[in-house]
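Figure 6 in text form: structure in, sequence out.
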């Protein structure tokens, strides 16, 4: 069955039985031993940069305050004590990235950076930091993390998602254009993860693993 056709009950059942620890451990090995500065630099890769033609994306990202102050970012992250604080902190990071990036590309046309794309980048950064050795591994920590929205994580929700707009058959990170939509999607997947009895971020690990296994099967 294609991931985009899974019902909510099927998503809950699949996520409940997902063997997350081997997947997470393989992922974690990519970040252990790297400094916060290296993690922030590597969090935005060529696949993301390709979405920003004529925007000098690597220069704009490097000019972001928190890219230049990774240790301060880490200290602020480690000081968070609740989901509400984490939510506000991550959204503040996203808005600051949008502001630093700028509204226009190098040709004076509207930039492709918006709050949804920024939140994808922010959540990847925070996920990398958490699973490196820099973030304290409290019970609260893993549960705080948000799901980064892209084609891997959006497609499995196509049948479950009841919001507006509908998730297209070939979604991308550009689908999430507003904070309202971003929050609604997080709420949707949070309910699924809660019913499955797992941290919300495990949905992202499952979606990535499921898609890549399907690709390998042909």
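Output sequence:
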């Amino acid at each position: 069955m294609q991931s985009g056709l899974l019902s909510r009950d099927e998503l809950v059942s699949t996520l409940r039985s997902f063997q997350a620890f081997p997947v997470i451990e393989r992922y974690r090995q990519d970040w252990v031993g790297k400094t916060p500065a290296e993690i922030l630099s590597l969090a935005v890769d060529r696949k993301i940069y390709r979405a920003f033609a004529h925007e000098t994306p690597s220069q704009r990202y490097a000019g972001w305050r928190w890219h230049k102050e990774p240790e301060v970012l880490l200290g602020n992250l480690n000081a968070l004590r609740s989901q509400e604080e984490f939510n506000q902190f991550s959204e503040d990071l996203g808005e600051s990235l949008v502001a630093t990036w700028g509204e226009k590309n190098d040709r004076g046309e509207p930039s492709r950076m918006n709050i949804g794309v920024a939140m994808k980048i922010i959540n990847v950064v925070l996920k990398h930091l958490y699973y490196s050795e820099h973030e304290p591994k409290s019970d609260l920590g893993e549960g705080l993390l948000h799901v980064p929205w892209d084609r891997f994580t959006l497609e499995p929700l196509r049948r479950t998602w009841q919001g507006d707009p509908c998730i297209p058959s070939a979604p991308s990170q550009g689908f999430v254009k507003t904070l309202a939509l971003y929050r609604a999607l997080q709420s949707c997947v949070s309910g699924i993860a809660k019913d499955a009895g797992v941290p919300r971020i495990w949905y992202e690990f499952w979606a990535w693993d499921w898609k890549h296994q399907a690709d390998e099967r042909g």
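Caption detail: Residues 83-101 form the longest helix (19 residues).
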